[in-house]
Write a structure and sequence with these properties.
It comes from Geofilum rubicundum JCM 15548. InterPro entries: G_CP_dom, P-loop_NTPase, Ribosome_biogen_GTPase_RsgA, RsgA_GTPase_dom. There is one protein chain. The protein folds into 3 domains: 35 residues, no CATH class; 163 residues, 3-Layer(aba) Sandwich (Rossmann fold), CATH 3.40.50; 85 residues, Probable gtpase engc, domain 3 (Ribonucleotide Reductase Protein R1, domain 1), CATH 1.10.40. It contains 8 helices and 10 strands. The protein has a 6-stranded mixed β-sheet with strand order 7-6-5-8-10-9, with helices on both faces. The chain has a two-stranded antiparallel sheet with strand order 1-2. Strands 3-4 form a two-stranded antiparallel sheet. A hairpin with a 5-residue loop joins β9 and β10. α1 packs across α5 and α5 packs across α6. The longest helix is centred in the C-terminal third of the chain and has 46 residues. Bound molecules: guanosine-5'-triphosphate and zinc ion.
Length: 302
């Protein structure tokens, strides 16, 4: 497998089913990764044309943001786009609701529901376990759920509570920064008593969009709808004439910040795709150069 792999994506990732041979008590060799029905990935941090697999064979993503300080609707749309590009159903979890007032909670919930329609949304607290009943009804036997979110939003605590075990160590958050120390640096897959499978992920600082044009159309379905009426088929909706999207923003049918976040993610996705193409071309050129070099070498020998 090592010799035939074309890149990181060909190696096993969390969520994979594999076949392997036992070679001893604590040694086995994986010789095949079975076909994946879904892959959730992001742009690899610091690398322009590479992706990092977050998990495979996932049915649902629990996108978690804490209600006190982490909450950010633009980032929520980033996560949604990652899910929508890989046909993973998103569920939004607003966590730590014990730290805000009822009024604040209803403002946040309203904001989310108004901007993101058609995505289930549950508000929970690991402290009081409010919202747990609703969440447990969502977790179905045989389905795989992957928790996504920044460090310190309560992923490991939730996993510990739902499994009734202390699987993931959590560490007290420093009061001054309100950030969870980076505790879960590895991924963990747990089968809950009801038969659902939960994957904990290390907190993410960057949620870079890779090749996600399909995902963007689902996340921003309102924009995709208006785009059908743009004068030009390849309209980029940034300053083109006859753009129905810009018109909708101007007359208030599309929220401005929604549109701006769309443009930002769209450009990111386009940039990723052009980096990939550039890299491919470079690799090809390099291949050609090698071939030439070998030819010359051979000629010199003859
Ligand atoms: N007040 C309050 N604190 C919580 C809640 N959930 C988790 N915490 C605390 O927040 C801190 C971070 O929680 P973790 O569960 O470790 O967060 P995480 O998302 O797993 O963080 P990483 O492992 O860094 O990705 C811990 O001190 C928890 O006790 C909650 O619902 N309310
Ligand atoms: Zn347009």
């Amino acid at each position: 497998m090592r010799f035939s792999a074309n890149g990181r994506e060909d190696f096993p990732a969390v969520g994979d089913w594999v076949s392997f041979i036992f070679c001893g008590v604590d040694f086995a060799i994986i010789n095949e990764v079975l076909p994946r029905y879904s892959i959730i990935k992001r742009k690899a941090v610091g690398k322009n044309s590479e992706v990092q697999i977050i998990g495979t064979n996932i049915d649902f993503a629990l996108i978690m943001q804490s209600a006190n300080r982490d909450f950010n609707i633009n980032r929520l749309e980033r996560y949604l786009t990652l899910c929508n590009s890989s046909k993973i159903s998103p569920i939004i979890l607003l966590t730590k609701t014990d730290l805000i007032s009822k009024e604040e909670l209803s403002v946040l919930s309203g904001e989310i529901k108004q901007r993101i329609e058609n995505v289930p949304f549950i508000a929970i607290s690991n402290e009081t376990e409010s919202g747990y009943k609703e969440l447990k009804q969502v977790l179905k036997s045989g389905k795989t759920y992957c928790m996504l979110g920044s460090s310190g939003v309560g992923k490991s605590t939730l996993l510990n509570h739902l499994s009734g075990k202390n699987i993931m160590k959590t560490k007290a958050i420093s009061a001054s920064s309100d950030r969870g120390r980076h505790v879960s640096s590895h991924r963990e897959l747990t089968v809950l008593d009801n038969g659902s499978i939960l994957i904990d992920n290390p907190g993410m600082r960057e949620v870079g969009i890779a090749d996600s044009s399909n995902g963007l159309d689902t996340t921003y379905d309102k924009i995709a709808d208006f785009a059908k009426q743009c004068r030009f088929k390849d309209c980029n909706h940034d300053n083109d004439t006859g753009c129905a999207v810009i018109e909708a923003v101007e007359n208030g049918e599309i929220e401005k910040s929604y549109y701006q976040n769309y443009l930002k993610l769209f450009k990111e996705s386009a940039h990723f795709e052009s980096s990939v193409q550039e890299k491919r071309k470079k690799d090809k050129d390099f291949g050609k150069m090698l071939k030439n070099y070998k030819k010359i070498q051979k000629r010199n020998k003859d």
